[in-house]
Amino acid sequence: MRLIVIVAAVVLAIVAWTGFWFYAADRVERTLQTWTTDAGAGGAVLSYDGLKIDGYPFRLQVRLTAPRVTWPVRPGRPEWQAEQLAAIVHPWNYRHIIFDLAGGHRLAVDLQGRRRQLTLEIGEGLASFLGDPGRPERLSIDLREAALSLDDAPVVEAARVQLHLRPGREDGQIDLAASFSNAMLQPPPTPALGTAPAGAEVQGTFSGPLSDAALPEALAQWRDAGGSLELQRLQLEWGELNASLKGALALDPALRPAGTLTARIRGHEELLDAAVASGQLPADMAPAARTALGLLAVAGGGVLAVPLTLQDGRVYLGPVQIGRLRPLL
Asked: How deeply is 133 buried, as exposed, middle or buried, from its count of CB atoms within 10 A (0-12, 13-18, 19+)?
C-alpha cells in the first residue's frame, strides 16, 4: 500500500510539472505572438519566420528563425535583425535568461540623413540577463571570433570580447567592465602601432540620463545634464605600447570627448611615431616632443607618468599635443 502511495505521488508530481511546463511554454509563445502585432517593451515590434519551443522538462528553450525587431516610433527608426536567436529560461525563474548570440546580427538606424548599418558576425556568443523588463540587474556578454562592419566596410575583428553591465549605486549610473583580446583593426589606423592590439580592459561608471531623442540630440542632452564616463581603469597593450589610464571624460559643446586622465605609459615613443605617421603631430615638432617626454620617462624609471588631456578638440600627452579629436557625430 505504501509503495502504491509513493508511485501515485510521483505520477501526480510529474503530471503537475508537465502541465506547468506546457502552460509556461504557451505563455511565452502567446507573448511573442502578441509582440508581432502590438508594440512590446519600449515600443518594439517583433517578427520572425519560425518559432520553436522545447527543453522539457527542466527548461524552456525558445528558438527564433530570422528574428527582426523594429522601433517604428523612435527617432532614427532603429531595426535589429539576426539569422537566428535562441533563449533559455527555467520555468521557475523568468528573471534570468541565457541567449545564444552565434551568427549574424544587423542594426540599422537613420543618422544625419543616412541609413547606417552595423553588422556583427559572431562565431560563438552567449549573453546572460538578470532582471525584469525595463529594470535590468545585470547583463553579461561573452563573444568569440567576432567581426564588426559599418555599412559593409570591415572595422574590427577580435578573438574574444566580454562586456558586463549593472546599475550603479546612484540613479542614472551604469557600472561597466569590458575587455577584448587579439583584435585586428581594418583599415589599420597607423602602421606605427600595427593593426593588432594585444588587448584592452576597461572598468568604469557611466553617469547621466539617456533620452529617446535622435542620437545627436540625445548626446547633447546627456552632456547638458552633466553626463560623464568615469574610468577607474583602462589598460591597453598595443605593440610596444603599454598604457594604464584613469580619470573622467565628458563631451564638449561640439560633442567631442573632453577631460583629463592620469596616464602611466611604457613605450610612449610608439605613440609619438603613430602621431607623426597619422599627421596628428608635425614631423618638425617630433624631436622636441621626444626630448621632453623622454626626460619625464627617465625621471619615472622608464614609465611616463603624465596627464592625458582632451580639451577643445586637442589631445595633449603632458605638455605635448599629439592629436586632434572630431565630434562623435
From this structure: exposed
Please name every residue paired with 312 in a beta bridge, in sequence order, or none if there are none. Answer: none
Q: Say how many CA atoms lie within 13 Å of 189 toward its Cβ.
A: 16
Alpha carbons 238 and 200: distance in angstroms, whole number: 9
Kindly give the interhelix angle for 268-277 and 286-299, rounded to the nearest 10 degrees.
Answer: 170
110's CB contacts (< 8 A; 6+ apart) are 75, 76, 77, 116
Bridge partners, 124 (sequence order)? 144
CB atoms within 10 A of CB 2: 6
**Closest alpha carbon to 304 in 276, 269, 273:** 269
Span 262-276, pLDDT tens digits: 999 998 888 888 888
SS3 127: strand
**Is residue 144 within 8 Å of residue 123, measured between CB atoms?**
yes
- pTM of the predicted protein model: 0.87
CA nearest neighbour of 53 among 20, 83, 87, 19: 87
